[in-house]
Design a protein that fits this description.
- The two termini are 31 Å apart.
- The longest helix has 11 residues, at 105-115.
- This protein has a domain at 27-120 and 130-158.
- The chain has 204 residues and is of the alpha+beta class.
- The protein has helices at 66-70, 105-115, 171-178; strands spanning 27-31, 43-44, 62-65, 92-97, 117-121, 134-143, 147-155, 158-163, 182-187, 190-193.
- The chain is built from three helices and ten strands.
- The strands form two sheets. The chain has a five-stranded mixed β-sheet with strand order 5-1-8-9-10.
- Residues 1-5 and 193-204 have low confidence and may be disordered.
- It is globular.
């Protein structure tokens, strides 16, 4: 599918972000990555001790009970509030994969430090809470440069959708705003944030 690109923001390793239109919305989960290195990362992905199944590559968003999967990191050298080392019981974390076609773990981290994290999802995950939901990021070669592992994480601070400026007043864009989505106007050569009140919400 042809996707319009624009000059308003820098191209990422995976290309320019996609501009939405009525009937075809591209949601981006955005936030800042972990601010300090975590001694638990990278974390090798193995068979789940709870269900006995392995965690395999998946293009979309998955939920993971991180505490049940990884447990407490007793030898943690991080801050006591590190959510990678000290997950709360029964708190569900998101899990998304970073494609090796576009990134190495290190190149993704460098981009995230410069531009922030922005991960495309087809729909807003049910149960996701802006400002609260933590997302773990995995890569097929995160562990010892050859095996799957979790290498980074971020908290979803906003959900962004890019639209053309002429669509700002359309009903479908207004419905997105009411759901707490941050609207970004983007035309060829132009990109500006549409200022709005951001809402914390929970998808029912």
């Amino acid at each position: 599918m042809d996707v319009e690109v624009y000059d308003g923001e820098d191209m990422r390793g995976c290309g320019f972000r996609k501009i939405s239109r009525e009937g075809r919305v591209f949601y981006y989960l955005c936030g800042s990555g972990i601010s300090l290195p975590c001694d638990r990362l990278p974390y090798k992905l193995t068979t789940c001790p709870v269900c006995g199944a392995g965690i395999k590559f998946h293009r979309g968003f998955q939920w993971l009970d991180w505490h049940r999967y990884a447990g407490e990191h007793d030898e943690c050298k991080c801050d006591e509030y590190c959510y990678i080392c000290h997950p709360k019981q029964e708190e569900m974390y998101g899990l998304m994969w970073v494609g090796e076609r576009f990134y190495t773990p290190q190149s993704f981290i460098l981009e995230a430090e410069r531009m922030g994290v922005s991960k495309l999802v087809a729909t807003i995950p049910k149960g996701l809470e802006v400002g609260k939901t933590k997302v773990l990021l995995a890569h097929r070669k995160a562990w010892m440069d050859k095996e799957p592992g979790i290498f980074y994480a971020f908290v979803v601070k906003r959900i962004e959708v890019l639209v053309k400026e002429e669509d700002l007043d359309k009903d479908w864009v207004e419905r997105l705003r009411k759901r707490g989505v941050t609207i970004i106007t983007a035309n060829r050569g132009v990109s500006k944030r549409y200022v709005q009140e951001r809402l914390l919400w929970e998808v029912s």
